[in-house]
Amino acid sequence: MTLKKIVYILAALALIVGVWGFYDRFANGHQNAAYGSYVVWGLWVAMYLFFAGVAAGSFMLATLDLLFHIEIFKGTGRTALWIGLISLGGGLLSIWLDLGQLWRIWKVYLQGNLGSVMAQMVWGYTLFGLLLVASLYFAIRDPQSKMLRVLMIIGLLLSLFVSGAVGALLGVEASRLFWHVGLLPVQFPVFSLASGTAALLAAIGLFGSDKDPHRAQQLWVLAIATVVLAFVKLYFLWADFSQSIYGNVPQNVQAVNAVLFGPYAWAFWGLQILLGTLIPIVVLVQPRLAKHNSWAGWMGVLVLVGFAVARANIVFPALTVPELEALIHAFTGPRLQFEYFPSLMEWSVTIGIVGLVVLAFLVGTDRLPLQSQEVA
Amino acid sequence: MPVLTEPRPAFIVSNAPLIPQQDVLLRMQDDLKRALQKPVNQRRWVMVIDLRKCVGCHACTIACVAENKLPPGVVYRPVLEEEIGTYPNVTRRFVPRPCMQCDNPPCTPVCPVHATYKNAQGVVEVNYDQCIGCRYCITACPYAARTFDFGGTYVQGTTGSEAFLLGAPKAEAMERAANYEYSKAWERKGDESPIGNVRKCHFCLHRVNEGMLPSCVTTCIGRATLFGDANDPDSVVADWIASPNVMRLKEELGTEPRVYYLL
Predict the structure, then answer these.
(1) Quick check: A335 contacting B, CB < 8 Å?
(2) Which pTM does this prediction carry?
(3) pLDDT in tens, B29-68
(4) What does A108-158 look like in DSSP terms, one character per residue?
(5) CA atoms of A20 and A28, how far apart (whole Å)
(6) How many angstroms away from the CA of B127 is the closest CA of chain A?
(7) A323 contacts B141 by C-beta, under 8 angstroms
(8) How far is CA A212 from CA A2, A139, A374, B91, in A?
(9) What contacts A241, CB < 8 A, 6 or more positions away?
(10) CB neighbours of residue A371 within 10 Å
(11) Which helix (H) or strand (E) holds B260?
């Protein structure tokens, strides 16, 4: 059995697991979710940030082929656009299910408050989604068209805007010191680029064409980019955390401590740092392994896992720090706690969405002409 | 002002005439009536909480839950309890925390659909029919004064003797009965608003507009919570917010809260 068939089966199983979560979400609303009135955003918001980052980053990478025509990336543009499109779909599905009143989403379009970063983001991602569809259409039908160049230029700027807006969404919140960092909107486009790079590395490494003469070289370049961006990510983490700890503002230090030593420490050290950063760095700096399809591909997957955890480690810890310390013991109840771990229903929905995105990716690689004629 | 004619208690040694004190609730009621005569945009509702009088009985919290039929996970006015000092010099402080009804609220500009705003009387409202339940405003509030309605009830999931003792069917019907926030009947059924919405204290505007004081004010056994129109120089609250021992929570954030604490 080929790897592709195994992944097909796993993705289908994930989707089946997700069906229960989707049913529960629609039948019982938010009642079986573990987030509450204090830790008010949970796994679905984190996954939205993750998928949206992959989408924006993939578009950035697609420009290497479709806008800048860099020889070594020839033929990767359409795959990157497809990854971007399905990731965006996964992200938007995740955040849509997080809304308290699902069917009122139209209000953001027709009665939106454009002063709100969230409304700007909804508009931005909608435009970005349409642009992804149009870009993919032209990339398949007429890759040399001027329209595609125009779309790629607009899309590149838009991908920077939307990924920055995700950082701004959190950064503007002066009441959450952990988020209220001016550099957050700057960091997020870099994170997006890094997660897009990892996604393309995984796609080419695990499912790329053996006939592609550039494949090994593409993997090597993407591996170097992944390593460089991993170091940039580590530097950002160091800058954020060291300044917070040194500054010693209690609310901020509590959030950092929750990540480093608190309830999320296992995810931070085990998944985000070790599995998602250090192991990929060690593997991908070795040219032999970096050019090896499976090694490179699986390292891409690990980096993606690390990024998903990193998104969660931005969202949850800030919310687990009470705005007023005595709230912890005031009128407590199941939804009035400052602790959070996703419920089975939340996991189920997220697993389903991941399954759906992976299935969509595989179907796309099989059914759409994503690879150029010479390598197909 | 009439002078008391009853015999003086033995511990009063002064010969100065005694002035009867009107119950502050009645005075606030008069203040409220006066304020309601004015155009809405000339009223400036504020709340003053005297921390020296609060005994931490939580009656205000419960009255608020009952008045607004708040479900699990939703609370408008918890009372924060803090222990101060070390033994043997220990005391407790009780800080009721309603919505601050900030004049510069961080929660309103972030709303993607204009569902939350300051109304003409300066109270921050949530339009339940407009709210999409994204909860961005909850994360923006520095006082944790907003909560989310998940749709549950307190008796939900109880079975057997527990359900019998709680009178579950009737209690559930009571919990699902309409509240009258924002002067409209909001029944709790299915996934209809206010389920799936963000909810918050609104100074019991539905009561205030009908000439009644907020529920937390009338139930405060120590008369520690005062309410009225700060634009009225004769009101109780106008007196108190001009005193030197007044403070507001997290003033450094520039939110300009309309809830004042007396220390």
Answers:
(1) yes
(2) 0.92
(3) 999 999 999 999 999 999 999 999 999 999 999 999 999 9
(4) HHHS--TTSHHHHHHHHHHHHHHHHHHHHHHHHH-TT-HHHHHHHHHHHHH
(5) 12
(6) 13
(7) yes
(8) 19, 18, 8, 76
(9) A256, A259, A260
(10) 17
(11) strand B259-262
Cβ distance of A100 and B196 shorter than 8 Å: yes
Question: In 3-state terms, what secondary structure has residue B249?
Answer: coil
Q: State the Cα–Cα distance between residues B95 and A13, nearest whole angstrom.
A: 52
Residue with tokens 């700890």: A245
Reduce the DSSP state of residue B246 to 3 states and report it: strand
How far apart CA A14 and CA A12 sit, in angstroms, is 5
| Residues constituting chain B | 263
CB B128 within 8 A of CB B193: yes
pLDDT tens track for A49-106: 999 999 999 999 999 999 999 999 998 999 999 999 999 999 999 999 999 999 999 9
Burial of B146 (0-12, 13-18, 19+ CB in 10 A): buried
Cβ contacts (< 8 Å) between A118 and chain B: which residues?
110, 112, 134, 136
CA angle A361, A363, A365 (to 5 degrees): 70
CB A330 within 8 A of CB B81: yes
Whether the complex's predicted ipTM is more than 0.90 is answered with yes
| CA A41 to centroid of chain Cα atoms | 16
What is the residue type of A268?
F
> Which residues in B lie closer than 8 A to residue A177 (C-beta atoms)?
none
